[in-house]
Design goal:
It is a single chain. The chain is of the alpha/beta class. 31% of the residues lie in helices and 23% in strands. The strands form two sheets. Strands 1-2-3-4-7 form a five-stranded mixed beta sheet, with helices on both faces. The protein has a two-stranded antiparallel sheet with strand order 5-6. The relative contact order is 0.16.
Length: 150
């Protein structure tokens, strides 16, 4: 329903819902609808590129486009979020993309992944290293209790 009302609000909602940062630019975004930041090393953050497709007819070229964007930006992984069930060709492209090996843990993750909105509602999340908290801690401006009576 949200997609039908406002596709851009849908994009922002779904990317945020899985712990990502929605792209500020929504027209001419080169297929990048968001990014999920994760710990690459102890002191270094890396990104998974997120592409969202709502009501469009899905096809394997969409996965190839995401694979090209991930490669062009030299990012380790990409995630395709969609309302409809992916086609067998899309799954084949994702499976052929290979694996990303985390430099610290040595654990491997699929370079390209597909999640449907239904799967997200069922609790499924991207298979990836620990994400960076997308929400920054607010700075407290309230006085400490001892300062209230000085």
């Amino acid at each position: 329903m949200l997609f039908d009302e406002n596709p851009f609000d849908f994009e922002r909602w779904i990317v945020t819902h899985i712990g990502g940062h929605p792209n500020d630019k929504q027209v001419g975004d080169k297929g990048i609808d968001g990014r999920i930041r994760f710990w690459h090393t102890v002191n270094e953050i890396e990104e998974m590129i997120v592409s969202v497709k709502g009501g469009q007819q899905l096809n394997p070229s969409m996965m190839r486009d995401l694979m090209g964007t991930v490669a062009a930006l030299d990012k380790p992984m990409g995630l395709f979020l969609c309302l409809a069930k992916p086609t067998p060709g899309m799954i084949e492209v994702a499976e052929s993309a290979g694996l990303y090996t985390h430099p610290v843990s040595g654990q491997t993750y699929p370079k390209l992944q597909i999640l449907t909105v239904q799967e997200i509602f069922e609790g499924k999340r991207p298979n990836m290293p620990t994400i960076e908290n997308p929400f920054k801690r607010a700075v407290s401006i309230a006085p400490r209790p001892a300062e209230l009576f000085d």
